Amino acid sequence: MKQEQETVELYRALMTKALAEDRIDDLKSIVKEAESFQKNARAYPVFYDMEKMLLSYFVKDYEFLSNVDSVKDFVKHGYYYDPFRDLLYAKLKALINSGKLKETLKDVENESDRAFIYLFLRGCFESKETMTPLVEKYKFQVTKRKQLTYLVRRFWFRKEFDLEHFLAASVGGGLVVPFGSLSDKVNLGGAMDVAVDYMSDKHFYEGFLLINGSGVVNPDSLQFFDIGLIFNYGYRFFKKKYLNLYGYGSVGLGFDGLNASEEEMKNGNLDLPSQVYPSLGAGLIADVFFTEVKKDGNGSLHGIRFRAGVKNVWAHNALKASGARLFVSIEWIVHQHCEVPAKFDYSFRENWTE
Hints:
Porin; 2 domains; 33% helix
């Protein structure tokens, strides 16, 4: 074992000296012997982490470096002191910093291999933040599918706003029109509503609070109120840059009753019944936007929501009547989109060489 360790140290010392003196032919011979020795070594490898791959550049083994299967499992390790490793990294880093690395690869005949090797060697030292624009710049030169896929997976990363999964909130008010026997008991009324939405692909989930009130026909001193706590499920059937259209169905709980002024409550013994009932309905929504989600923005989108819907009303306790209410409203709406990892767009490439 000691002899094996000493042999490894000798090979590394010889490679360090040859590399420092730019004796590339001697370096090739030493590397070849060291590789043969390493195949039979039991405890002490000659090459560590990325050393073999970086050495392939100096001995001009471009076939090895351009083969994704050869380099795909490289791992960046933390720093440790070693003369051979430090020299290997320092010389290649100097070529990258000086901008001469690309020039040294002119002997690589295949353009895709040349671009791949250049990006791979830079990726051994650079962050994804630095490498991402480089991958995008050279993607047209990398014509081999396996090479470009590897570069994207290993060195490319961008975020984008998810336009298909997001939260939204709206608040607004509108008009309520009664139908059925209810229309004989109450007048037209006003409404306010608050909604919180979640959009998943084209599916629409909404928690909806609708509060409306109307004057009672007889006696006209009373007010009829109706509150709906509703869950809406819908589907987006139309989408353009500044317009989304949805249809939805509703299920929830309604609460209605009569209300009187404080003065009337003091002057008379009024019976003001109320009741809770199951609420069903349906509606249409049109979202019109006057902003758009910007890549460098905060992911918010602002607009106006136009809503039209219908829900049942049971008011047997309060009015001895039932029916439905058509409501239309205008709401201020805000979409909030979150950032997610972007998907690389390969559509620019129609034909691959491999």
